[in-house]
Design a protein that fits this description.
Blueprint: E1 2-11, E2 16-18, H1 19-23, H2 30-37, E3 41-43, H3 51-68, H4 74-79, E4 81-87, H5 99-107, E5 113-117, H6 123-136, E6 143-151, H7 161-164, E7 169-179, E8 190-198, E9 206-207, E10 230-231, H8 233-255, E11 264-267, H9 272-282, H10 293-296, H11 303-313, E12 322-329, E13 333-340
Parallel strand pairs: 4-5, 4-6, 11-12
Antiparallel strand pairs: 1-7, 2-3, 6-7, 8-13, 9-10, 12-13
Helix pairs in contact: 3-5, 8-9
The structure holds oxa(dethia)-CoA.
Length: 341
């Protein structure tokens, strides 16, 4: 049996903020941002648009695509879902209710369980494996939606040039289905291998200190600026290059394949230089990696499913292509998936 991605979708807010726009309000330049990160712009959600809104849009796109592929109407597909799993750092509400439940309701997925997972930028990689396992352990389960969404513009300190230039908002979703195809080997399909890792010793490298049970807000507190993401850029950079190279090497070794067998690597889009450094260390040609960071910046849990959808809709993924996702993020978490398209 295989767990196949049968449709993809994405939602990116229309409001595009260029590097030049940012340079008008903070001490930065288009040249610095491009040369240090590869980022040219980011899309920022309008006020009033939250994580569940972007997630719902991406999920509907995925269901519409599956419907066009002859899998039934979008409504029937929604009702056939056994699970909605949403990776996010920026839920609509802090902890309760899970944002996935808001999506479940609006989608009409009345037979689905729904939960959020907090694996930061690695959320989609984690979510795909967890949803696949959920389908595999019970013969009656067939379909799940895996969504990665972040609205990082809400937790970025827009006065801190060290982080403000890096992030953007967006959502990506994939519809997965348990099928009778073989999971690996010749003619194999779908998710064939995943590595999920964590190194909590780096927890403080990416952190929102305020608002949780460690530092809750108390009545009478005066908040100068809202809780925001603090980052040790150098620590994350060093970790990220090591994490990407380690995961790529391990996925190849465990699967008994070489990089030549992989059609494309779809990395988490955090910084083009991180991806280039990992590629250089491993001797992997740059064009093996798909990068769209110039347009969207780092959309955290959304970056890999947005990239997948972009490639898919552009007809750049061929049936049978072996794809590798690889990513890292707060936690620190890291991991990767091997998927036969
Ligand atoms: O999903 C995971 C999220 N996070 C990441 O992946 C981030 C990982 N880290 C990075 O990508 C890089 O460390 C950064 C892009 C954040 C920083 O790049 P860097 O090449 O490590 O720059 P730096 O921090 O060493 O700063 C170099 C200089 C400094 O000036 P001085 O001290 O040399 O005068 C910074 O103050 O660049 C300055 N700088 C900036 N200048 C213009 C830092 N940010 C900016 C900026 N515009 N936005």
């Amino acid at each position: 049996m295989a767990i196949e991605i049968i449709a993809t979708g994405r939602a990116v807010p229309p409001n595009k903020v260029t590097n030049e726009d940012l340079a008008e309000r903070i001490d930065t330049t288009d040249e610095w941002i491009r040369s240090h990160t590869g980022i040219g712009a980011r899309h920022v959600a309008a006020s009033g648009i939250a994580c569940s809104d972007l997630s719902l849009e991406a999920a509907r796109e995925a269901l519409n695509a599956a419907a066009q592929g002859g899998k039934g109407s979008p409504e029937e597909l929604a009702q056939s879902l056994d699970l909605i799993i949403l990776g996010t750092t920026t839920p609509d509400y802090l902890g309760v209710p899970p944002t996935a439940c808001l999506v479940q309701d609006k989608l009409g997925a009345k037979n689905a369980g729904a939960l959020d997972i907090a694996a930061a930028c690695t959320g989609f990689i984690y979510g795909l494996e967890l949803a696949a396992a959920f389908l595999m352990v019970n013969k009656d389960r067939k379909r799940a939606l895996v969504i990665g969404t972040d609205v990082l513009s809400r937790i970025v300190n827009w006065d801190d040039r060290g982080t403000a230039v890096l992030f953007g908002d967006g959502s990506g979703a994939v519809l997965i289905e348990k099928t009778d195809a073989p999971a690996g080997g010749p003619g194999g399909r779908g998710l064939v291998r995943t590595i999920l890792k964590a190194d909590g010793s780096g927890a403080e490298s990416l952190i929102i200190r305020q608002g949780g049970s460690r530092n809750p807000f108390k009545a009478g507190d005066v908040v100068a600026i809202p809780p925001y993401l603090e980052m040790n850029g150098h620590a994350v950079y060093t970790f990220a290059v090591k994490a990407l190279t380690g995961i790529i090497e391990r996925l190849l070794k465990e699967e008994g394949i070489t990089i030549g067998d992989v059609a494309r690597i779809i990395p988490h889009q955090a910084n083009a230089r991180i991806v280039q450094a990992a590629g250089k260390r491993l001797g992997i040609p740059e064009d093996k990696f798909f990068l769209n960071i110039e347009e969207y910046a780092n959309t955290s849990a959304a970056s890999i499913p947005i990239a997948l959808d972009e490639l898919n809709r552009a007809g750049k993924l061929k049936k049978g292509d072996l794809l590798m996702t690889v990513g890292f993020g707060g936690g620190l978490t890291y991991g990767g998936n091997l998927i036969i398209w």
